[in-house]
Sequence to fold (790 residues):
Amino acid sequence: MTSISLQHFLILSFILFSLGTYAVIVRKNILVALIGIELILNAANLNFFAFSKFKNYQFGELAIIFVIIIAAAEAAVALAIFINLYRNFASINPDKANTMKE
Amino acid sequence: MATINLIFFSIPLSAIVGFILTFIVPKKIKRIYFIEIFFSLITLLSSLYLLILVLSKNFSSIHFSIDIFKLNSNFDLIFNYQANKTEIYLIFLTALISFLVRLYSIEYLKNEERLKNYFVVLSLFVLSMYGIILSKNLFSLYIFWELVGFCSYYLIGFWRHKEAAANAAKKAFIVNRIGDIGFFLSILIFASTYKTLDLGNISNAIGKEIYPFSQKEFLFIALLLASLGAFAKSAQMPFYVWLPDAMEGPTPISALIHAATMVAAGVILISKLFAISTAEFLLIVAYIGTITALAASFIALSQNDIKKILAYSTISQLGYMFAALGFGAYSLALGHLIAHAFFKAGLFLSAGYIIHLFEGEQNIKKIFIDKKKEKILFFSFSIFSLSLCGFPFFSSFLTKDSILNFSLIFSIENNNYFFSASLFLASLLTSFYTFKLFFQIFFNKKEHNFLNHARHISSDNKTLYLAPIAIFAVLSLFYIFSSTPFDVNRSFVLNDITSELKLLAIHDFYYRHIDNTKGDFLNALDLNSLEFNQKYIRYHLLTTLLSLLMFSIGIVFAAILYIKNILKPEKIKKKLFFIYKLSEKKLYFDELYDIIFVDLTIYLSRFAAFIDKNIIDKTIEFVSYSTKIIALLAKYLDKYLIDGTLHLIAFIFEFLGLLIRKIQTGKVQTYIALSVLIMIIIYIFITN
Fold:
């Protein structure tokens, strides 16, 4: 039985990242997109963890905590934006909010 | 002396002020011409004062100069003016005649609307004449000379609505231009040769022969060219055609032109040049004068227009003056000018009066005046006529007979009888046509239904007509010139003029050049020299008798034809058809000029028009056509090539813009997808 190596972490992190990106780009519900962002962040967290574990790189754990804090703050700000979005467009479909092109 | 100067300067000054005031005062003011007449009265009185001084021997000459141009040290152009006794006589003559003509004009032209213009130009005319008389500098003389030409042009064509008047004015101007070109060229020759245009300096230079070019031939050409101007102005032989046509102008103007201003200018010019004349030049002047005297009196024979007869008689009398200058009788020429001025002005004013009586009729065959009703006119007219013929006891006898006497002496000494024969014949013709006119008007009662009865003119208006005529009649009597009616040597005017000739400081030159060529010719200058007097007295009686004979032949013929009607004029006309035709057609000079100048000009202009139309116009058309084609080419080039390229570039950018615009959807997810894509691309690039 082969032990779990750095590559396994990275592949998992890649899958998570890809799924998160997919969710952000494709889903029409902006809350799901927010969840996708969480996935991306966690993929990054996983990377940090993997490198700090396998490469003995101490800063990784610190960064993970930092990212989690950022993610919490980001979620709060994002939800506030979503409420305003809903007020303005009566929808949480990001396709409806296309006034940025103007 | 100071008062004399003051009075002298008041002459040109009041003339100038009169001219300017009349010019600037608006037209609306009625009787504006009285300003002008007032100033001309001042001129007249000043010149009268100077004349009295001259006559009482209290006058010496006055000089003044105007320094306008300072060119360089080599050439002086100072406008010198000089008034000797001769000039005073001439100025008084001009002032008097122009003043009386002005008075006459008030009545004669009272219905004229443009009377203001008339008086403005008239005063400029007289002013320029003063300038010609006083100028000692050829250039200043030339300026006034041209002014006189312009004024005569305006006044001859005063009735500009009449086509004949407009044409006559044009003719006078053009003929004078031909002469003026000559005069101007001679001025250039004088200026380049002697570096001065002052006549005194020129004659000094010639006398001392300072300059290398003062050869006789050179001077001769310059004099000849200058005399062209004089001949044109004074209507001498090749140029005389303008003067009869100038009769289209108002009659007072004719009087002025014929007596004191225009035509006198030519005589005055030659008399000014007399100081530097060579004998050959004077001989030419004598020929021209003699031929003109004869030809003009010949033409006058067949004329029936009262003013034209007078015009030809003027030309003929001017011929006498030029002949006198040619013979060297300087003083007689100017004396005859003065004598002639009075009776000719009188004749013209009488003619104007007669024309007014007959409401514009000028044909003497249709005019008859009852001499009992118009006594003043009759007496004045007889005085003028006798004076014109040079009858004893009248002013022109003194001068005209002396000129004839000179011609006799000149002919005998040169053994060339052309001069005296022509002049005596001319005096015969003169007496014939003068009395033809006189008898036709006063004695030949017309049988046909012509205008027999003169219009009635009220006595108030008559005064303005007849007063000037009567004054001229008095002035045409002998005592104006001399204390005795027969002896020209006692004539104070002529003696004054003669004495002045010595002042011209030309004697050195004159002696040298004329002594060598024509012997005793010189003595003719000095009326008081012993040798001349002997000759003069020797021929005096002969001349007088001959001229009286000529006079009587003329008057008898005129009486036979026009009073007694013994011979019918028509019969003579038929017998002498060729000669009559020659006279009636004015020796065909007009036709000759028509052929030489008018037709030639027309052909030349036709030729020029042909070239213009067929060569120049065609070239221009070709150029414009080819330009048009090139422009068309350029237009298509511009439209399709340059514009096309620009459109293509614009289209490409538009297309690109359209493409790129599609990326910007405004949708967040698209942007994210794109940025992910780009990140991937960048990653691939970096790792590679």
Summary: Chain A is about 75% helix and 0% strand. Residues 4 and 54 of chain A are 11 Å apart (CA to CA). The helical segments of chain A are 6-26, 30-54, 59-89.
